[in-house]
Amino acid sequence: MMWLSDSQKVGVAFCSGGGVFLIGGVLLFFDRAMLAMGNILFLIGLTIIIGPSKTALFFARKSKIQGTLAFFSGLALIFFRWPLIGFLIELYGILILFGDFLGTILGFARNVPVVGPYIGMVVDRSGIGQSRRNAELPV
């Protein structure tokens, strides 16, 4: 089991808040302010969790440059009042950047009480996360 320091726990709180704001922004028909706040909180949380240098190295990797450009281009479009298109481009960037450990996330989701078995059934039927299981984690 991985233990987090106090500052990393704060980073997890920032990332969670970012996720809540992103979901809220989508539910409110791509509200620009909510999406922007969610992105900012997520980036701050990620930086607190893994550190500034590892965050910079993660986004600057040659294999991840397409995802980095898509993510930050989408973020810029959200800031320039194109929230729907910006979110879609940003989502593509997120899938490229964080798609390598989708299997880890799905494995965690299987262990969630009550809904975990149902998530596991959907994952098993669809075959999501089978090809690149834990290929390259950012930490």
TrEMBL record:
Signal peptide: none annotated. The keyword Transmembrane applies. InterPro entries: Got1 (IPR045176), Vesicle_transpt_Got1/SFT2 (IPR007305). The chain crosses the membrane at residues 12-30, 36-60. It comes from the Eukaryota. It is a multi-pass membrane protein. Keywords: Golgi apparatus, Membrane, Transmembrane, Transmembrane helix. Pfam families: Got1. GO terms for biological process: endoplasmic reticulum to Golgi vesicle-mediated transport; retrograde transport, endosome to Golgi. GO terms for cellular component: COPII-coated ER to Golgi transport vesicle; cytosol; endoplasmic reticulum; Golgi cis cisterna; Golgi membrane. The keyword Membrane applies. It is found in: Golgi apparatus membrane. Belongs to the GOT1 family. This is Got1/Sft2-like family-domain-containing protein. The lineage of its organism: Eukaryota, Fungi, Dikarya, Ascomycota, Pezizomycotina.
